[in-house]
């Protein structure tokens, strides 16, 4: 840890919150949420807390990362969930974008899947122009098809109608093709990492205010598009499931227990801050 980081470092804000106070901003993955319920029950712990941000003057929290864990907690009937609370602003959170690299699903097949979607207009162009159009938000996404070919996807101007159409676009391929989430908008870069990639769906950059507006209205972005980079993210906290499931203990009492439990870990030097980027192999 550098001297500057050591001076700024604070323990993450970890607490219990009501499950009913959690608002998702993205769709959850049914194929992952179901097994998560079973894993919670088998392991008896919540290893990594979802990351949430308070909604202004609302008393609720928007889930920035952990939609599947939050959904699993609701499905399991847990009254409370253990979360990491962050301020939804720099330098605490940085919002970037994931793009979808489609595996063994040629662009022609994607065109066929998108062809029948109402309100969607597909326009062939080159990659440079597609990037410019997307940056100006004149398109909801574009598809890089190889070489210099791209197809820009256009729809309504209203945020909520555009988001509904974007969900429809993702739904058109998510059940038919496997895809990788990649941070770069380059098809060549995606293919250098994954040899079976045949097309790349590139999404726009979203602002936190848009995420909040959609979430509080009850809408959700497609899963696997927003990428929240959290400063000093809490991992491997391993809170016992029995604490989450206990409906008889008031949440204030649970949080007092949590404060003492975390202080004990700190005193026993079980808390470690990693300054460098970290790769985990036991997720």
Give the full name of the CATH homologous superfamily of the largest domain. Conserved hypothetical protein from pyrococcus furiosus pfu- 392566-001, ParB domain
CATH class of the largest domain: Alpha Beta
Strand segment tally: 15
- Based on secondary structure, the structural category is alpha+beta
Mean pLDDT: 92
What would CATH call the architecture of the largest domain?
Alpha-Beta Complex
Task: Summarize the amount of helix as a percent range.
Answer: 25-40%
Describe this structure in words.
- This protein is of the alpha+beta class and 283 residues long.
- It has two domains: 3-94 and 229-267, Conserved hypothetical protein from pyrococcus furiosus pfu- 392566-001, ParB domain (Alpha-Beta Complex); 99-202, no CATH class.
- It has ten helices and 15 strands.
- Helix 2 crosses helix 3 (67-75).
- The longest helix is centred in the last third of the chain and has 17 residues, at 251-267.
Q: Notable features of this structure?
A:
Conserved hypothetical protein from pyrococcus furiosus pfu- 392566-001, ParB domain, alpha+beta, 283 residues, 10 helices, 25% strand, six-stranded antiparallel β-sheet
């Amino acid at each position: 840890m550098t001297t500057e980081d050591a001076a700024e470092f604070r323990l993450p804000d970890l607490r219990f919150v009501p499950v009913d106070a959690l608002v998702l901003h993205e769709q959850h993955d049914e194929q992952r949420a179901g097994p998560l319920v079973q894993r919670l029950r088998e392991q008896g712990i919540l290893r990594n807390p979802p990351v949430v941000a308070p909604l202004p003057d609302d008393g609720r929290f928007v889930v920035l990362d952990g939609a599947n864990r939050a959904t699993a907690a609701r499905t399991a009937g847990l009254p409370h969930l253990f979360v990491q609370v962050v301020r939804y602003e720099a330098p605490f959170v940085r919002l970037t974008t994931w793009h979808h690299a489609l595996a063994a699903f040629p662009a022609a097949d994607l065109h066929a899947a998108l062809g029948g979607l109402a309100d969607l207009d597909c326009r062939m162009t080159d990659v440079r122009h597609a990037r410019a159009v997307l940056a100006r938000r004149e398109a909801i996404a574009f598809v890089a098809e190889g070489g210099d070919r791209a197809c820009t996807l256009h729809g309504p101007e209203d945020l909520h109608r555009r988001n509904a159409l974007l969900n429809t676009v993702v739904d058109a391929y998510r059940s038919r093709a496997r895809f990788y989430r990649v941070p770069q908008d380059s098809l060549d870069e995606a293919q250098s990492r994954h040899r079976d990639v045949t097309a790349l769906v590139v999404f726009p950059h979203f602002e936190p205010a848009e995420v909040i507006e959609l979430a509080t209205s009850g809408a959700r972005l497609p899963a696997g598009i927003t990428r929240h980079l959290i400063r000093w993210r809490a991992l491997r906290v391993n809170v016992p499931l029995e604490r989450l499931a206990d409906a008889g203990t008031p949440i204030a009492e649970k949080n007092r227990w949590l404060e003492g439990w975390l202080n004990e870990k700190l005193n026993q030097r079980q808390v470690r801050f990693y300054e460098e980027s970290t790769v985990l192999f036991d997720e």
